Give the backbone structure.
Amino acid sequence: MEKDKMKTLFEIGKDKTCVVAAVKGDTRFISRITSIGITPGCKVTIVKNEKSRPIIIYSRDTMIALNRNECKNIMVNETGDAA
Amino acid sequence: MKDKDERVIALLGQPNSGKSTLFNALTGMKQHVGNWPGKTVEKKEGYFEHNGNKYLVADLPGTYSLSANSDEEIITRDYIAGGKADVVCILADSSQLERSLYMTADFAGITVPVFLVLNLCDVSESQGKKINAEEISKRLNIPVILFSAQNKKNYDKFYEALEEALAKKTTLDSKNLESKYETIPYYNTIKSLVKDDLIPGYSSVWLAAKAVEGDEPLIAKIKTSLEGDSRSAFENAVAKINSDTDKKWVLVTGEAKFNWIDDILNGCVTSKSNGRKLSGFDRIITNRFLGKPLVVLIVLFGLIASFIPAIPFMGLGSAVEYLAGPVTRALSSINCPAFVTAIICDVLINSLSFILKMLGFVFGVTLVFGLLEEVGIMARISYVFDNTMSKLGLQGKSVMPFLVSFGCTMGGAAGARVIDNWGQKVLTIALAWAVPCGAAWAVVPMLSTVWFGGAAPVIIAAILLVMVLHMWITSKVFGRTLVKKEDRYGMIMELPPYHKPKWSSLFRYVLGRTKDTFFRVTKVVIIVSFVFWLLTFTNSGSMDNSVLYRVGQFIEPVTKIFGLGWKTFMAFVVSSLGKEGAIGVLSSIFTDHNMLTVGSAVASTHVENINELLVANVAKPEALAFIFAITFNMPCIVALAATYQETHSAKWTAIIAVYYTVLALLIACAAYHIGLLIW
């Protein structure tokens, strides 16, 4: 997929789905975010995305809360609306 | 501690995998809580017997992986690799199987016998999931069971799996994961260099994968174990990985692990529900406007509820207090020396009574917090207060100990147990001390009214303002050391599905905790009370000859700078034992001049005309200084002891205590000079 289509996770609206394209950051961060199941290629549904609050996503059977700052490191490709 | 014929089981699992519930259910009250050597991480061990065999259960710290991102993770993997465990029990959450099998994938390559418990199967069933544990077991080549702590029948399955794993020494089949790793060129290079026995306990597969992931402590260990050519070849490979900026290899191994999990689960899990939406309660608690008030309400309600189990403790504490009279009379009737009577009645009986009264809070708070944690509400509270608390370098959960500290700082310290990062836990307790406790609220508004009448609400508002400032400054002062910059990740946490608590296991845990707290706290409190007694005891029964009195008089020129005369300064010193006694102590200083006792410091008795006495003897600026000084002083000896119990660090307990004493005097100084300007 084209690079310019990539967005950061927090740019995706509620009830949209996306696929993780890349995860940036240092080894500690990547190891932490991997251990909770967010790796390139995994499908993510945005459950809640409100300003100045952690974003809530659903991925790999799990409801996950992520700080917005951390989301900057997660690049995704939007795929559409959640079924 | 290990007997010869004892088998050691290590429980390994991510947070929220139900590990503690299983640990408590297996071991009951036969638990021992201590510290991992040289670390501040809590070490929990317990025992049980089954079919005539003795088992020691080690509850390893809840971690997300076996990387080296925290002390907890390093302890966990060193324990397993160190060969201390005869068998490892990995827990996964069957309602979130794909994600929670990550620990199993990270374990692959380690050759310690292992079995897998798919916990919380009641939750996954209610979600309409069907899991074929037998097939998963075949694919992994280890015993795998569906489990729920609720159901007694499940435990038979657990013991069977345990015995099978021990008897057959079942190790995890990781061949398929290896073949995925083999697509990583660096992995192959490194694997050819590290042999299986290079570092005891680790296989070459596991070592090579971790080295590729850039695991610093392990890379250092491998380096020292290798010699000559293979060492330089290894160093070259690591240097190449580091200079390869295109790819983060930790991501690649992560992908490999999840692909492997997908293969394992393929066809083994059928699910009716597709994705999950927020439940009704989740929609309310995550609501921008309703979330925070709801959390505060939950905590307040929890506090009130925790008073009910606290009542018997308080009754017991009061009963012990009444022993002082009869025991004193009995001792004097047998001509016991006065100082012996004083040590027994004043130091021992009063300390014990004070501890028992406060212990009720510990019991209540541990129960309520434990329940919130187990049911899954705690994770939501973390979410709701994440942004607010991250400004202080803390997790959202820290809001709970703060709220509890309005009632009792000891309860707050006990509640800080739910914070899984040690540095953040210590910082939370350090900040919770700034929150005026119930005893302060009983004394401070009254004192404010005595001197300032209708202006008392202004004083209270100023105290709350100073509290917020204090917490902010303290978070800056200690934050840098306690919560290192690289540890300051924002929230990355799953919101687990709600599930029913296992009451018997919860109660046993709470009782065990309360018992533990009692013994540890008693030691500290009695030592501190005894020192206080040495400072205040006089044979004559008048305070004039006591060390504290003389020191107070001697350093009055210094304490005057902070606005406190020797009388209020003495009352300030005593208030660090317990704020309940502040008025009683003033009352004996201004009236009968009787010797100060531990009893007077922790009880709330005073003469009737105390108000007039105070107004006549203490000017407003000094009064203001005094009010601020006692409000922000160390909360009480029991809180001090509980802080030691929770932080496992005498050093940090002492640092916090000294810091609070000094800062209270500085705040008093500021209040005094502001007072001088006004009046």
